[in-house]
Amino acid sequence: MARFLTDADYDTLIKEEIKRLLDGRATNGTGTPYKLVKAENMAIRQIKNRLKARYDMEAEFAKSNTPTDLRDSFLVMITIDITLYHLYSQTGHRDVPKHREDRYQDAIDWLKDVGTGVQEADFATYEEEGETPPPDMRLSSDEQENHSW
Q1: CA 35, CA 146: separation in Å to the nearest integer?
Q2: What is the mean pLDDT of residues 95-117?
Q3: What is residue 131's predicted lDDT score, i.e. its pLDDT?
Q4: The pLDDT value given to residue 75
Q5: Coil, helix or strand for 116?
Q6: Do 2 and 64 meet the contact criterion of CB atoms below 8 Å apart?
Q7: N or C of the chain: less Cβ packing under 10 Å?
Q8: Mean pLDDT along residues 17-34
């Protein structure tokens, strides 16, 4: 399976030297640093969990970086922001730069707003594709009975 993010995507948000310091030297056999891929997967899972009730996130993350790049640029950006925050957090809370914390918090706030419907996103919805959204879990109970005479 192809990665959603490419190494070139990081060029606009972080210097190569800092990325190498954060992701370590161990690779996953493909030449891609293991920590980076793990942090990307955590970020993607975090985004999917927030938005999957309203949007078909599997379809959004299935888009790959081709010459006609179909990926949503904002989704790429917040995925990178969340990934970099996860990479920085392994070094210790005091070592996370303020701008990284701010960008992470902005991404999480946006995900909350979109997930609850306060704000709209330009992602594929289930109705557009003829699919059914994942079921919501609803808990309920019968009316309470009163047995006192």
Answers
A1: 58
A2: 90
A3: 61
A4: 92
A5: helix
A6: yes
A7: C
A8: 64
